[in-house]
Amino acid sequence: QQQVKQSPQSLIVQKGGISIINCAYENTAFDYFPWYQQFPGKGPALLIAIRPDVSEKKEGRFTISFNKSAKQFSLHIMDSQPGDSATYFCAASMASGTYKYIFGTGTRLKVLA
Amino acid sequence: DAGVTQSPTHLIKTRGQQVTLRCSPISGHKSVSWYQQVLGQGPQFIFQYYEKEERGRGNFPDRFSARQFPNYSSELNVNALLLGDSALYLCASSLDTVGYGYTFGSGTRLTVV
Lengths: 113, 113
What we know:
The complex is a heterodimer of chains A (113) and B (113).
Chain A: E1 4-7, E2 10-14, E3 19-25, E4 33-38, E5 45-50, E6 56-59, E7 62-67, E8 72-77, E9 86-92, E10 102-103, E11 107-112
Parallel strand pairs in A: 2-11
Antiparallel strand pairs in A: 1-3, 3-8, 4-5, 4-9, 6-7, 7-8, 9-10, 9-11
Chain B: E1 5-7, E2 10-13, E3 19-24, E4 31-37, E5 44-50, E6 53-57, E7 64-68, E8 74-78, E9 87-94, E10 103-104, E11 108-112
């Protein structure tokens, strides 16, 4: 119940295209869903996050879509650029108990120039 | 403003040895969490500390321990190192225990030979 399943494992997108990464969870107690971007040799950096009381959040080219009934959420990167090439992690956490993040397994995105 | 700083950046140890990793959180952040990221996987929660008290522990053996100092910096200790402890160790800081919006450091790359 503590798992967050992420797909695809890797993704290749043409410059200007849309990158879509999906995550699914089981524990309905999760109430915060962040996405992190990680470049080689660096720590994860927070991109965007959503709470389950909204269905969509947009920040620049990055959008999170959230489906509470399906227990799924996704990251959409519009107008993908070569500089977006990185590994993306979804995560989930809850405000009670141990305030840990449960991370997905990551998606390695490559945007072709 | 300085972000989360971790030291050392890289470390090579021999099986059976002990290692201490250090973390300084963002100024004003009182909570520090530690994560282990094995190559090709998402970060796994090890500990969370807030106001010098342990607030959460992940599924790691007792060889792993940590502490937080009055200035909110933290140390992670690993005893009796195993080859499987080779990983990127990430420190994350946040304002409080809830952990919304973690900021990660760049990590310490530990190699056990």
